[in-house]
Design goal:
Helix content is 33%, strand content 20%. It is α/β, with parallel strands linked by helices. The chain has one domain (4-211): Alpha/Beta hydrolase fold, catalytic domain (Rossmann fold), CATH 3.40.50.1820. It has a 7-stranded mixed sheet with strand order 1-3-2-6-7-8-9, with helices on both faces. Strands 4-5 form a two-stranded antiparallel sheet. α2 (105-116) links the parallel β6 and β7 (123-127).
Length: 212
């Protein structure tokens, strides 16, 4: 279950209603406070809710068992996705649009959530993340029918996410989504200022996309 008391919000309850919601998901071994540092650089119209992953892992938390880097077992990922969807459903009535943002393992969650509800989200941002392999049902066909907006950001010196997983994700996104794909020279497993500026521009363009 998602710990509702642990969710970190960028707005007080009285200020959230009617604002678009950006759901943030941290990487393995981290916590719900990690991605709040990105908030000042992102479009202020969005209320950010940063979730804590449900599984303890080291001094932090994990969305699912780590397994092979970039290639986790599908079942536990989908179980965690169901928990996040249940939490989103509990707050969505107050928000006209919901976007997704995740780093590393959280980035894989963002893309898997998009698979679960291709029309349910304004966009998904996956930073140093990957698409989970092993899906054999019609979820990707459903995503392709909608072609939701996706931002992929990754460094060319990332020592954590295997190159195979990054390539798999790029191929999947190109085939099934409307993707903005950025590779950052010299960036390890991290988020750079240039990448964050690109993410802010991507999220900021959402209103123009809806109006077109």
């Amino acid at each position: 279950m998602i710990d509702r008391d642990a969710v970190q919000w960028t707005r007080d309850p009285s200020e959230r209603d009617g604002t678009p919601l950006l759901v943030a998901m941290h990487g393995v071994g981290s916590n719900e406070r990690d991605l709040l540092g990105l908030a000042p650089a992102l479009p202020p119209a969005w209320t950010i809710a940063s979730l804590r992953a449900p599984m303890p892992w080291g001094q932090g938390h994990s969305w699912y068992p780590l397994g092979t880097p970039g290639s986790p077992a599908l079942g536990p990922v989908d179980e965690s996705v169901a928990e996040v969807l249940a939490w989103i459903d509990s707050v969505a009535a107050g928000h006209p649009r919901v976007g997704l943002l995740g780093f590393s393992q959280g980035g894989s969650m963002a893309l898997q959530l998009l698979r679960a509800r291709p029309s349910g989200f304004a966009f998904a941002v996956s930073l140093s993340g990957f698409v989970v392999p092993g899906v054999t049902d019609d979820r990707d066909a459903a995503v392709a029918a909608v072609r939701p907006r996706v931002f992929l950001g990754h460094g060319d010196l990332d020592p954590v996410i295997p190159a195979e997983a990054t390539t798999r994700t790029q191929v999947w996104a190109a085939a099934n989504t409307t993707v903005t794909d950025r590779t950052y020279a010299g960036l390890p497993h991290a988020v750079s200022a240039a990448e964050l500026a690109d993410v802010a521009a991507f999220i900021g363009a959402e209103r123009r996309v809806r109006a077109s």
